[in-house]
Amino acid sequence: MSTSTRSFTCLQCHLRAIRPPRRLYHASASLRVEPPRPSVAPKVSIDIKHIRQNAALHEQNCLDRNYKAQSAYPARINNLFEQWYGYQRDARGLRERNNKIKLHIANPTTLRDSEEEDIHKIRDMKKDELILEAKVLKEKISSIERQEDTLTGEIDSLAAAIPNLTSNETPRGTEPKVIDYINIHPEPDPSISDRVWRSHVHIGAELQLLDFAAASTSSGWGWYYLLNEAAQLEQALVQYALSVARNHGWGMVSPPSIVYSHISSACGFQPRDQNGEQQVYSIQQNIRDTGVKPELSLTGTAEIPLAGMKANTTIDEAELPLKKVAVSRCYRAEAGARGVDTKGLYRVHEFTKVEMFAWTLPSSESSTTIFKEMLSIQKFILHSLGLHCRILEMPSTDLGASATRKNDIEAYFPSRRERDDGWGEVTSVSMCTDYQTRRLGTKVDVRSAGGKIGFPYTVNGTALAVPRVLAAILENGWDEGKKEVRVPECLWPWMDGVKVIKAKER
């Protein structure tokens, strides 16, 4: 007896082989959108009706925010909706006739009293003719339903890519508005100052605090080692920021650093920005998992896993505002090109950050209250660290997709005097209305409104991002004569008695 040489293929592998490829792009070649969401992703509930009825508003909003590709989406949505409505109208007539035929087949006496012309024609048809037409009608209806599903899927994808509407508080254009300062400038008139400034890179090497060379060997450009007192400073900064937030009633969370990519996207963090620059580190999947399991990403901020905590849940009104603070490692692919702006710790791929995140009632008043509370916490921390800062109302072109309004705080970095007059961002706080909660399926039961189910607003803000603040402390606390750095007094409780960082004996 001959033995078959045909190789065995398990059912799972066979199904994987015949599975159609994922559709990575928009049905319209000119409009690229994100990949399809996996079945486990929260149901998106975007207010598409508002986009349709205010297409010009959303188009201009996209242009104001420099989302040029997305500015075409509102008009496209209206066009697709008209097509969908046409299919609905066609299917309605087919379903009505199909129902009449089914009724007549089941019981010919049901429609005997009707005087409608098409009913008379149905009564004159033979049973096999009726069955055949019912089959044809079913196929036509199924075809229309498939076309409707394609259109609604395209509409949903386009709507999800449109950024949040911009607050009236936000300046339009590219220039931020300075609204306040923190602490006095350490060198108000450079022309009459003889103070010697050093960059944190120089100070870090002088005091054996930073090692970029070793990191470039182990990990590449954009990474670093914090050594000795710098490593202590990182922990002191984290603990100090947490203590301030806790004293203001913020509950602590230790979040994961890896999330599903669809959670990251729902928060407004896309794999690439509008310029095509990579923003998110995606984790490579095994070949057998591609298209089967949801993709994973490293988080760029604790905002993402904090927002994901309440995905697919309903929060009781009494729980709001719900305020959380978390410490996490943050991973940013877009660390930028080499140059003055990116030397040292200013722009890196991985860092520690303390992040505040809150859910509020769905009202501007409630979210603005938390927004101001976050800003006051940021101001308190930076003031106590002795850093000279300015507070900015950021312009529309600087807003991410989720934010309706954003304030940044920039600290003075002596090493950046030749660039941006020494200013560099150290914190930000953003109001996101219901942009994130609609995409994450986070709802609120507003019992004061008769149990109405709505979408809470979210607000997020940096309590403290370690590398830049550490760099600012080194540069502003440097004493050229003594070759040492003064540690801010608020950090002393976590520095094991170290109040001044001095050179080590070599």
Description:
It is a single chain. This protein is an alpha+beta fold and 506 residues long. It is 37% helix and 18% strand. The chain has 14 helices and 19 strands. The protein has helices spanning 11-18, 48-53, 55-64, 73-106, 117-124, 127-161, 200-206, 212-218, 228-247, 261-266, 303-308, 364-384, 435-440, 466-476; strands at 177-182, 210-211, 225-226, 251-253, 258-260, 282-283, 296-298, 314-316, 322-331, 350-360, 389-393, 405-412, 423-431, 443-446, 452-454, 457-465, 478-479, 484-486, 500-502. The strands form 5 sheets. It has an 8-stranded mixed β-sheet. Strand 14 (443-446) and strand 15 (452-454) form a beta hairpin.
Instruction: Output the number of helix runs.
Output: 14
> Given the C-alpha coordinates, what overall shape results?
elongated
Order of strands, main sheet, comes to 1-11-12-13-16-10-9-4
Q: Note poorly predicted spans.
A: 1-33
- What is the CA-CA span between the terminal residues? 83 Å
Quaternary structure type: single chain
Number of separate strands: 19
Sheet with most strands: 8 strands, mixed
Mean pLDDT across all amino acids: 87
